[in-house]
Amino acid sequence: MTALGSPSLEPDPAHPGLRFRRPEERDHARVVGVIPAWWALPGTANLGLLLPRLFLQHFADTSTVVEDGDGDLAAFLVGFRSASRPGVAYIHFVGVRPDLRATGLARTLYERFFAAMRASGCHRVGAITGPGNAASQRFHRAMGFESSGDTEIEGVLAWRDYDGPGEHRVVFARPL
Ligand SMILES: CC(C)(COP(=O)(O)OP(=O)(O)OC[C@H]1O[C@@H](n2cnc3c(N)ncnc32)[C@H](O)[C@@H]1OP(=O)(O)O)[C@@H](O)C(=O)NCCC(=O)NCCS
């Protein structure tokens, strides 16, 4: 952590008022703090537990936070290159503040991540979501991902007990 804070990344012409930068460990509390309101789905009150501090300690170089002109959190993406499958990248979390949605911000975060992962030699990217998160499923399909699963759960194909008993997941993948 530096006294000056993390330097800005390349700005995005489509989002002129927003600042892109790498997360720092001290961003953890506010990133986790927005998750219940930004996800706003039944059963997601403790979703922040899936984003422990270690992600901002060890995956900051491949993750991004976005702030508005007041320094308030506008969006974030937490992703990384697989340690065990070096050709594969993974997006663990993405969130966009509700008032900034449908402006292409998540697309911008994904495309920047894709470009960086391609440059580091990755040829595939994955992500997962819950069967009840229809918006995330539509977003991932719009971003070129294909989904897989073994059972129809809540009307969608998902892998039963993927992350433990009752923790079903829709698995997404696409080439880079
Ligand atoms: C899912 C989420 C990240 C999308 O963010 P966003 O900034 O609104 O998405 P974008 O504006 O960049 O949209 C990108 C594409 O996805 C599509 N899309 C995004 N959300 C969609 C939705 N709810 N329904 C249908 N399509 C959607 C857009 O139409 C767009 O397609 P196009 O570029 O072909 O026109 C945002 O709704 C969010 O933060 N949701 C809560 C957190 C969450 O569920 N995260 C994902 C699981 S980790």
- Please tell me what the overall shape is: globular
Total of helices: 4
Record the strand order, biggest sheet. Answer: 1-2-3-4-5-9-6
Strand content: 25-35%
The whole-angstrom Rg is 16 Å
Descriptive account of the structure:
There is one protein chain. This protein is of the alpha+beta class. The protein folds into two domains: 16-102, 3-Layer(aba) Sandwich (Aminopeptidase), CATH 3.40.630; 123-176, no CATH class. 23% of the residues lie in helices and 26% in strands. The protein contains four helices and nine strands; from the N terminus they run E-H-H-E-E-E-H-E-H-E-E-E-E. The strands form two sheets. It has a seven-stranded mixed β-sheet with strand order 1-2-3-4-5-9-6, with helices on both faces. Strands 7-8 form a two-stranded antiparallel ribbon. Helix 3 (105-119) links the parallel strand 4 and strand 5. It is globular. The two termini are 32 Å apart. Coenzyme A (COA) is lined by residues 38-39, 93-96, 101-107, 129, 133, 135-136, 138-139, 142.
